[in-house]
Every structure is written in C-alpha cells, then in structure tokens.
Amino acid sequence: MGVEDEFGPELPETRVLNAKHPLNFILEEPTRMGYIETTMALHNAGALVLLERRGEPGLIEPDRTLEEELLQISCTRGEAGPEIRAMLAELKDEPSCC
Question: Around Cβ 78, how many Cβ atoms within 10 Å?
Fold first, then answer.
C-alpha cells in the first residue's frame, strides 16, 4: 500500500505483482479510505508496540482487545461503519463488537 519500494533493490519488479507499484492502483476503482482506516490505525498501533520493544522478534499478532477497540471506532464513527456492521452481522463465528 506504500508509495516507496518496500521490497528493496534485491527483488526485481518482475517478481512482484504490479511491478512494485501499490496494489490499490491496479484496481479500476481504488479502495475507499473508509475500508482501510482501521487497518491503518492498527498499523500505527503496531509501530508503537515496536517502539516500546514489547514482545519477541518475529511476527507479532495484534492484541485482540486493540483490534476490537479499533473496529468499534470504525463501526461507530468510520465512513464504512454501516457496511462493516452489516458484514459482521452475517458472520456467525465472530463476536459483534459494533
């Protein structure tokens, strides 16, 4: 989703989907911000976790409480809130936090 070469010079453009360009721009209609605002908020929260040096090196799964809190904010105040609530209502295994 970034605008810089996130893969580095060692990985040729031919090995990366859309020649290393942001995937959102290969779509006929780019993803609306309302759909990625929660993802970006979680990304920022992850940066804080890294800055605080919590956890072991490697893949760090987000805290479920944080995920639910961010989803709640998106459901109640985000542009895509009504659509997110409708999607969650259809899921039987997921708790509805909205």
Answer: 21
- Tally of domains in the chain: 2
Residues 22, 2 within the same domain: yes
Nearest to 94 by CA among 71, 78, 73: 71
- On whether both 8 and 38 belong to a single domain, the answer is no
Q: Please give the Cα distance from 91 to 97 (Å, whole number).
A: 12
Contact criterion met (CB below 8 Å) for 68 and 96: no
Same domain flag for 86 and 44 = yes
Q: Which domain holds residue 74?
A: 32-98
Q: Point out the least confidently predicted range of 27-31, 54-58, 70-74.
A: 54-58
Q: Does the predicted TM-score (pTM) go above 0.70?
A: no
- Whole-angstrom distance, CA of residue 80 vs CA of residue 18: 27
